[in-house]
Structures are given as C-alpha cells and as structure tokens.
Amino acid sequence: MDDSQPTLDHDASDPGYETGDDALFQAPVSAEAVREATREATATAAIAAARSSRGGRFRHILPSRSGKLIAGVVIVGLITLFGIFGPMIAQPPRDSDNPALLPPSPEHWLGTTKLGYDVFSQLAWGTQGSLFIGIVAGIVALVLAVVFGVFAGYFGGVLDELLTLFTNIVLVIPGLPVVMVIAAYVQNAEGLGPLARSSLLVALILGITGWAGSAVVLRAQARSLRTREYVAAARVAGEKPGRIIFVEILPNLVPLLAAQFIFGVIFAVLGEAGLSYLGLGPTGSITLGTMLNDAQTGQAVGTGAWWWFVPPGAIIAALGAGLSLINFAIDEVVNPKLRLAPENAKRQRRAAKAGKGVADTGAFA
C-alpha cells in the first residue's frame, strides 16, 4: 500500500494555495479572486479615511439630507442673528419721542406703539431677552435632569428610589399654576434687590420647574447604558463613578441631551410669554412676552394696531417651529426607525405604482 501523499498542482507561493490539515478538502481560491478582494478592501479603507478627514466620522450620528434639520437651523439661526445684531441698528426701545400708533412706514418699519415706542426696536430687544431666558432655563433644566435622571439610573438602589420619587412628585404637579405661584411670590419677596422681576429670575424659575420629564427619559437610558460591556470594564478597572458617568455614559447620551435641552428652551420661551401676558414676567427688561402684555393692556386689538402684537407672536411661533424641527431631526438620530420611515414609505409607494401588493403592515405581498 502506497502511503505517499498525492501530488498537488498548486505552488505554495500561489495566493490561492491552502495550507493545513484541511487543505486537501478545500476548493482552491484563484489568484484573481484574492487580488479583487484586496482591491475592494483597499478602496473601502480609502473611502473611510477620506470621510474621516472631512469630518465624516460625525456624519453617522446625523440624518442624511434631513430637511427638518436644515429648515430648523435656518429659522433658529435667522432669529438668533436678529436678536444679536438687531439692537445694534435699532433706536432705543424706550424712546417715546415718536408719534403714537403709527402704521409700518419707511421711518418705522413695524410702526409704533401707543406710547410712541418703535416696534422694530422693541422686537429686536425682545427677541434677545426671550432667547436669553430660553437658553438659561434650558441649561438649568438640563443640569437638574442629568442629576436626577442619569445619576439615579446609574447608581440604582436607594438613591434611585429617592430621586425617582421626587421626580415623580414634581412631574405630576401642574406646571403653569406652580410657575405662576412661584413667580408671584419670589418677585414680590424682599431682599432680592435687582434680581426681583428680572429676566434671570424668570429663567431660573422656569428651569427649576421644567426638568422632571427630561429626567425620566435620561434615567431610562442611563439604566440601559450601565449594563454595557464598556461600562462594566471601566468599573472593573477601578474607575470612579463620577468619571464613568461623565466619560462613558454622557457622551453616548449627547443626541438625547441635545433634544432635551431644545425642549427646555421651547418650554421656557412659551412659559415666559404666558407669564408676561398674565403680568408676571420681567419688568426691568423687554421680551416677546412683555410686548404681548403691553399690546394687550394698550388695547392694540381694539384699535386695530396689528403691527403691535403680530410681530412678537410670529417670532414666538417661528422660534418654536424651528426648535421643534431640530428636535424632530435629533429624534431620528436617537430612534433609527424614524430615520428609515420616509425611505420605507417611498419604497412602498414605488411598489404600489409597479403593481406589487403591499400588506397593511407595510410588507410586500
């Protein structure tokens, strides 16, 4: 019996030559296939490097060609630029030397109020004041949401139960009545000095009362992230809990934190407008809400002075719409199903036009 091994026609230098115990039972791989695979891998690496050099590594967290994001950024950007640079080109907002209740004209682009104030000037300063209140209140609400949400979700145990209990209590309390009571009490309290009835005080009140909903969302995400492998590895490596939260968990919550911050800004802008309309807003500064209050007390609707109350209302509506569009775009980052929904709808429409049946669940029949 011949125990000699069979002779192979492949050279060991051939890229398709297989070595090892199972080499005799494997199909030979051609050198052309190996070279093709090498070219594809090289091309893929080159494309990835090019995208990384152009900032493409951050592109995966953004919805591709999101019309909501573009429209929202444009609207909010224009309003922000108007609030920053508008006061530089407008006359003093408290200048009453102008004739009263003038309609829009080349001299006064948005007319004047009952006291002779220029509406365009007040609108520029009011936009700046409302943006300030919204940003400050959004930051305060986000910080409190992180403390009561992320910390509770990560640590768990008794601390989680206590923080969650307090969050649920704040969550079920009706927001607007509480804000009205706190604003009325604090603004009339003695010892506050210039802080009483100021924009900063209103922003702090709105931020302190508007964090509970965001804390619930962040707590749920933190509870999910604390069981991930990289968090467990950092804990085993001896990292302190504070560093794990700020280095390992919070960076993975950036889209959600941005969405909650934008929600806080929207809540603050609308809340300030409601407080000011009821006469509980800041008195030492001008905001879009105080403009609406002045128009209401000055009987702008009865006198037909539409230019007095329409512009601030339009700015509030546009700012809320722009921030909401940005928030919707961020939701598509947090929830990939929302990002794929438009493409799935287009695919179903194309299938329907082509004559293919589409089930009620969206699957092709």
Task: Report what the structure shows.
- By secondary structure, the protein is an all-alpha fold.
- It has one domain: MetI-like (MetI-like fold, Orthogonal Bundle), CATH 1.10.3720.
- Helices cover 65% and strands 0% of the residues.
- The protein is built from 14 helices and no strands.
- It has helices spanning 31-53, 67-89, 119-155, 157-172, 175-187, 199-208, 212-225, 229-236, 241-249, 254-277, 288-297, 300-303, 306-334, 336-353.
- It is globular and about 70 Å long.
- It comes from Agromyces badenianii.
- This is ABC transporter permease.
- Residues 1-22 are annotated as: Disordered.
- The chain crosses the membrane at residues 69-90, 131-155, 162-186, 198-218, 249-270, 306-330.
- It is a multi-pass membrane protein.
* Separate helix tally: 14
Q: List SSEs in N-to-C order.
A: HHHHHHHHHHHHHH
* Helix vs. strand class: mainly alpha
Strand content: under 5%
Task: Provide the number of structural domains.
Answer: 1
Largest sheet: none
- The 3D shape can be described as globular
**CATH fold label:** MetI-like fold
Distance between the termini: 62 Å
Radius of gyration: 31 Å
The count of strands amounts to 0
Quick synopsis:
The protein is mainly alpha-helical.
Could you list some keywords that capture this structure?
mainly alpha, MetI-like fold, 365 residues, globular
Architecture blueprint of SSEs:
Blueprint: H1 31-53, H2 67-89, H3 119-155, H4 157-172, H5 175-187, H6 199-208, H7 212-225, H8 229-236, H9 241-249, H10 254-277, H11 288-297, H12 300-303, H13 306-334, H14 336-353
Helix pairs in contact: 2-3, 2-13, 3-4, 3-6, 3-7, 3-10, 3-11, 3-13, 4-7, 5-6, 6-10, 8-9, 10-11, 10-13, 11-13, 13-14
